[in-house]
Amino acid sequence: MEKTLLYNAGVVTMDAERHQYNHGAILIEDDRIVKIGQNDPMLLSLANEPDLQRIDLQDRWILPGLVNTHVHLSQQLGRGLGDDVNLLTWLHERTWPYESSMTEEDSYVSSLLCGLELIRSGVTCFAEPGGQFVNGMGRAVTELGIRGMLARSTMDMGEGLPEVWQENTDEALEIQIANYEKWHGKADNRIQVWFGLRTIFNNSDELIIRTKELADKYKVGVHMHVAEIKEEVEFAQATRGATTVTHLRNLGVLDKNFLAVHTVWLTDDEIRMFADHDVKVSHNPAAAMRVLGFAKVPEMMDAGICVTIGTDGAPSNNRMTLIDEMWVTSLIHKGRLLDPTVMPAENILAMVTCDGARALMLEDEIGSLEPGKKADLVVVNPNTATMLPMHDPIANMVTSMRTENIESVMADGRWLMRDKEILVVNEQEILIEAKKRAAGIRERAGIKLPNRFNVVD
Ligand SMILES: [Zn+2]
User: Fold this and answer.
1) pLDDT tens digit sequence for 116-140
2) Both 179 and 50 in a single domain?
3) How many whole angstroms from 225 Cα to the centroid of ligand 1?
4) Which end of the chain, N or C, is more open, meaning fewer C-beta atoms within 10 Å of its C-beta?
């Protein structure tokens, strides 16, 4: 058995009583936390413990590993392809051609590159809404050491879909069942396979209903983009006779294992529907600001809805770091409501830790630092010109912490990054391979970007 004591650290537990030890320590045995408490008594009680690795963190802070509830691993190599264009151009001329030109190996490298950004920004667990190649993502997650709820992008209808993506409802479901059987529970149970629905534009009612039935049968979640843009709720109204959320309620699929992403265009009634059915929400503030609009997040949280945070994909946000998303979340709702008291820092930190874990139905395993839970944690070094002083540590972690302040990351009791060095994969090799593959996909997809300046190539 491997025993590690992390001591001389501030510890933000995010447990139900929100214990915070300004001078704390954590004892870890193998993959689990066994004890948390004040530094000096913990050190004293373990003074004669043999075979204990003691790590002095010298006044750094420990947080639970962050949970990103919506990140497109397979889009990482498309970063920079979606800037300053409208949604239809973004979708039909950039993202779809790019994604549909990828191979499984491209998806694997894209996932590795995205995983590096996730680890460097303190994420130990994420939910993926669906690339095409769960095999590529699964291989990457196995190597990266993080936790992933993987899904396949699933569409059985819609105009303008690339030919390689056209499939019927049965095929769409069968491929997902095969993915579940191959990958669910793999990598020491760090991988789960969820069922994906892309959007109501591309999903028939039959697919939506049968997807929910399968998710219930296999005891996993459904991950769907919901009420993203105004045109979507108008499309639902015109083709199904009700706006997106009301229609999903009418189909009977709103439930505690339903993760709804973006949820920008909801009526007050629809917010109540989410609350009544314990639907989980992933708020992606930066992507929403770019093209979708303001989600009514404070209103949803007041209604008791579990709202979490995601980064979306690289072509929609460019920054796959929850650290930046926390900051953006803290700002935009204060600005929209002209009320600086909404979205306090403690609530935002909960969105990316304990509430994120609850949205992924992993609240018994991760999301807070407590005896019995998995050792998924982040070591923050606040000793930079950009983060000091620490008058109000929790506010600082939301408003002035940068990705650079994330020093070490542990998942399942294993260091993924230590003192900013990635230990699980060869970072330099991945960066080189990512550049090569990104250029190859773009060439195959025939995507041309207009020059912004008087370019000499
Ligand atoms: Zn998305």
Assistant:
1) 999 999 999 999 998 889 999 999 9
2) no
3) 6
4) C
